Amino acid sequence: MSIDIDTARRVAHLARIAVDEKDLPALAGELSNILTFMEQLNEVDVEGVAPMTSVTPMRLKRREDKVTDGDYQEQILSNAPDAREGFFAVPKVVE
């Protein structure tokens, strides 16, 4: 598939990219090269290939899900700039 100068101008407009008239032929050529490469990718046989989310197989680090003793309310609230009656105090934002 080939991209002409009018299509390149329209794509630049839709992408909100300012392209000079003299640069439109180069942009059209680059867009045509991209589409040619995509057509080549469509020719690759991917039957039986599992989809992947990354090129390197890795698992996210996980922590053990265990119950802790908790009851750190006073320590947590000691970091707050304003705490009242066991809660964080924040300025009123709705009248």
Summarize the helices and strands and which ones pair or pack.
Layout: H1 5-14, H2 24-42, H3 73-77, E1 83-84, E2 87-88
Antiparallel strand pairs: 1-2
Helix pairs in contact: 1-2
GO molecular function: asparaginyl-tRNA synthase (glutamine-hydrolyzing) activity; ATP binding; glutaminyl-tRNA synthase (glutamine-hydrolyzing) activity; transferase activity
EC number: 6.3.5.-
Family: Belongs to the GatC family.
What are its keywords?
single chain, 95 residues, mainly alpha
Structure, described:
Keywords: ATP-binding, Ligase, Nucleotide-binding, Protein biosynthesis, Transferase. Heterotrimer of A, B and C subunits. This protein is mainly alpha-helical and 95 residues long. It has helices at residues 5-14, 24-42, 73-77; strands at residues 83-84, 87-88. Helix 1 (5-14) packs across helix 2 (24-42). The longest helix has 19 residues, at 24-42. The protein starts with a helix and ends in a 7-residue tail after the last strand. The mean pLDDT is 89.
Summarize the structure.
The protein has 95 residues and is mainly alpha-helical. The protein has 3 helices and 2 strands. Strands 1-2 form a two-stranded antiparallel sheet.
